[in-house]
Amino acid sequence: MRFEVPQFINVPDKLFGPFTFKQALYLVGGGGLIFIISKLMPFFVTFLLGLPIAAFSLALVFYKPNGRPFMEMVESFLTYSFSHKFYLWRQRDPEPGAQDVTQVHTTFPEEGAIPEQDKREKISDLAWSLDILDFDE
């Protein structure tokens, strides 16, 4: 028995000519807002306010920075702008009598500190453990 697998399920349907429902809503919303402003304000104010509104609604429909919808960029901007920012690291002056942690260094063992026999045993143990491990699973 054969089953048909749906194709292109992540592509939105074009409902209004070449526009999806969201794109048509952005265009109608921007045009409606400009229409309301034109009925309430004089022409010069309508032109000054309508130009950015028209540019924003057209950008929502047609502009895709880095192949992603402009609405996602606006949403990310608003989320970042109005969310609480938590900064963890803050440099402070050291308290009096406290150890200066910026000057702490670990000392490495000197060349002859580890006997040669111990080095060979550690290397052979490591080689043996690598030989028995099966990474192809």
Notes on the structure:
By secondary structure, the protein is mainly α. The protein has a domain at 21-82. It has helices spanning 21-40, 43-62, 70-82, 116-132. The two termini are 33 Å apart. The mean pLDDT is 82.
Strand content: under 5%
**What would you call the quaternary organization?**
single chain
Q: What is the residue-mean pLDDT, rounded to a whole number?
A: 82
Based on CA atoms alone, the radius of gyration comes out at: 33 Å
- Share of helix among residues? 40-55%
What is the element string, with H for helices and E for strands?
Answer: HHHH
Strand-pairing-aware structural class: mainly alpha
Span between termini? 33 Å
Give the uncertain stretches in residue-range form.
Answer: none
The best one-word shape is elongated
Describe the sheet with the most strands: none
Number of helices: 4
Give a count of the beta strands, DSSP E runs of length 2 or more: 0
Write a brief caption for the model.
By secondary structure, the chain is mainly alpha-helical. The chain has four helices and no strands.
Task: Identify the notable features of this structure and list them briefly.
single chain; 137 residues; mainly alpha; 51% helix; elongated
SSE topology:
Blueprint: H1 21-40, H2 43-62, H3 70-82, H4 116-132
Helix pairs in contact: 1-2
